[in-house]
Amino acid sequence: MVMDDDMGKIILNSGWLAARSTEVQHSGIQLTTTHPPTGIVPPWIKAVVPGTVLGTLLESNKIPDPFYGLENEVIIDIADSGRDYYTFWFFTTFEVKLSANQHLDLNFRAINYSAEVYLNGHKKILPKGMFRRHCLDVTNILNPSGQNLLAVLVHPPDHPGKIPCDGGQGGDHEIGKDVAAHYVEGWDWIAPIRDRNTGIWDEVSTYVTGPVKIVDPHLVSTFYDGYKRVYLHATTELKNKGTSVADCSLNIQVTLELENGICLVEHLQTQHVSIPAGDSTTFTFPPLFFYKPKLWWPNGMGKQSLYDVSITVDVKGHGESDSWSQLFGFRKIESYVDSATDGRLFKVNGRPIFIRGGNWILSDGLLRLSRKRYQTDIKFHADMNFNMIRCWGGGLAERPDFYHYCDIYGLLVWQEFWITGDVDGRGVPVSNPDGPLDHDLFLVCARDTIKLLRNHPSLALWVGGNEQVPPDDINNALKNGLKLHPYFQNVKETGKALQDLSLESEDPSQYLDGTRIYIQGSLWGGFANGKGGFTDGPYEIQYPESFFKDDFYKYGFNPELGSVGMPVAETIRATMPPDGWQIPLFKKLPNGYVEEVPNPIWEYHKYIPYSKPGKVHNQILLYGSPTDLDDFCLKAQLVNYIQYRALLEGWASHMWSKYTGVLVWKNQNPWTGLRGQFYDHLLDQTAGFYGSRCAAEPIHVQLNLATYFIEVVNTSSEELCNVAIEVSVWDLDGACPYFKVEENLRVPPQKTISIVEMKYPKCQNPKPVYFLLLKLYKMSDQGIISRNFYWLHLPGGDYKLLESYKQKRVPLRITSKTSIRGSTYELEMLVHNTSKKPNTKSLTYQNNFVARVGDEDHSMSSAEPVNTGGGEHEGSLFKRFFGHFSGENNSLKVAEVGGDGVGVAFFLRFSVHGVTTASTQTKEGKDTRILPVHYSDNYFSLVPGEVMPLKISFEVPPGVSARVTLKGWNHHHIRNIFQV
User: Fold this and answer.
1) Coiled coil: which residue ranges (predicted)?
2) How does residue 427 score in pLDDT terms, banded at 50, 70 and 90?
3) What is the CA radius of gyration of the chain?
4) Buried b (16+ CB within 10 A) or exposed e, 665-702
5) Per-residue CA distances from 296 to 218, 293, 456 (Å)
6) Which residues contact 494 (CB under 8 A, 6 or more apart)?
7) What is the pLDDT of residue 462?
8) Which positions are annotated as active-site residues?
9) Which residues lie below 8 Å from residue 868, measured CB to CB, with a gap of 6+?
10) Structure pTM?
């Protein structure tokens, strides 16, 4: 049990037991009076709460791991077992004693799908619906001794459905009759979840208040005078649980944390209200005025400034009765269909934002959700320079913890309701178009979800469903409930010029939301063709240059564009038995294309191939035929990097002229899937993660793969002046046959401009395979704004020459400094390709990266540039780079990776592994990786003489020491670099 920051809240997340209902001989009344469970004694097992039945069974080793190999096929499906098999009792105890005029609520933030609650022999029914909160006032049924017995009987969804032999999108679609997640019947990216996520899947808590309780406050900000004058509006419901009139002092306080835990109180206001006994009232505070507040910006546009807004209520004769707090960001989101592109355009605080993000289902298919994992998930998205996440309609109404970290890291969120085309009117067989059976229940869940999430600045828009519109009555109710307050209506869509909102007019915080648009479906209103046609996708491998071509995608905003996502070999070995380590067979077809035939385990895990016979030749075979799993996965990472970098660069090449945004399908997998992911379910990144990170940086230099012109993308609101681009080509012998600098460049804000043609391929005797390095830098101090490294072949060629390049040993020097804070390790490293002294013409080889505003958490480096690369000067660079370290630090470490070849150190990848302190030996084949790890960059390459600064951070489990290893294309044996 955990105390929460809220007054009187205790989270009940430990000490739970569970048992199958058919194996329990006692009633709920008996379980909570005369016959409580005595511990982990059959049929009772340790329960996972929050969690699901399947998660509980897995935790107690009652089922095999459904995410490992083909083990999911061994677990009985609810369609075959019947609902009773997955109907479970959950039992716990909690202790509480109330004083006079105190009240206790028992809260379930979400249950799937319905439940009976027994407390000390008293029964209460929780109504159906996966996405609704349940609040029970249990004051009068608490045990006078303070020890309380709680039993919850949880029933699965009413219509769990059956899984067709060939799988299908959403199984037989029966789950759509309930207000529940659709993915649980399986999709083309996930196998069926056998219990359909039955369980107490979100937070359970007790909550003590005085006679008056604060219920669902709503915070809204309005801006005037170019965002200099701001008002905070706040409305809350107050519920008097007492037996007499409550004379209340209602306080609102706004604070801003400055530095080192010091907080500035911006506002403190007290209002008085009287509430009759047993009554509820809605109270709106007079608006609070702010002058030039710190604004909340999306990732890449500025800092995510957050104010702490707290509301307390004091009752005369009692004292403080309740309190509530919320981190709140001052920002305004506008959205309309752009006339130039017909794509939906978003503005934040008056500035257009070019959307680059991805689709999200949920963190884990067994709903093993935690703040820690959410933080990793969302930080990964910020690290990729993404600015939006779409919560797909077949998944979850995401939890407050998810939104908290989106607020922290600046990820805008597109939140859909629980409608999907395949389950709600389309699909094979054609599904029911009328949505769930109980439309009123859907709307209850929708309104409750809106109240739960509406105060988060990251929440950008509501959407009725995925590739489908909700039934008319639901759609109309959502439109009406989510109507915009006049202040938030956009002049480009209404055609009406709005004057400043009068403070005497209806307060926007009195709306259900009122601040964000509602779009009826993901293919409407400026998304895809805007009219509901299937015009998202495609979902398979593409030629990299295709993304840059004008005819690749017709519409302004693509909400789903998918591709490959093979993880590293270590993940395959960790999630599959040896039968799953077999690489695909490459079957040559009569038309000259190659078809990949994966092993049955890969097929079960929804592997998507690296070719599209008839459209795209196999992109892995461009590097030669893979010999084993390690070789296959390494070559797949090369393709992953190129594929996703090209996708995002191609979109940026047409910023505002053709496109307003793109969302990749998908960011990650909620299970051990083998497609569409930037990091796998074990939280190890693919190379596509770093290709995306490179391409989506706010200011970016790139090569247009269709025209071979070098372009600069400036998504910022500031003009770039006095910048230069260094262009260098490197061959496999380590020579630089082409070097050019374009100086005195100017790049307007919010523009992509074409600079110059990269002419090397047209020169005399170009090499069939070569490397291209682009650096955009400030001429004043050679500070690197953007660095981009390509490996390229001549038209019609391939990369097979790189196979022999594996044998070239390029020497490296790696210097590292470690900072340890508790269990968290932070490494700063300089990686130096020492195969050759740098070309004296180049001033940018040291890679002194310019930090972005608002990017302190994952910026590159602030090292000062120097103009030479060896001996004393190199030591001086190291001294300046590492000199700012403080705290508990290890000494400076230097590792030399030997080699006598001169050339590019190609496709280097660091990883972190754990070694138990008891033994330095690890079992053959055991996955020793420490995950997750946050890298400022990985899968990177260094030209001769180049130095790259890197940051690595991770947590080390107790009893384990960490070692950092290096692997690369021409360092293909894992090398232990440092023990930390």
Assistant:
1) none
2) confident
3) 29
4) bbbbbbbbbbbbbbbbbbbbbbbbbbbbbbbbbbbbbb
5) 18, 10, 11
6) none
7) 98
8) 467, 560
9) none
10) 0.94
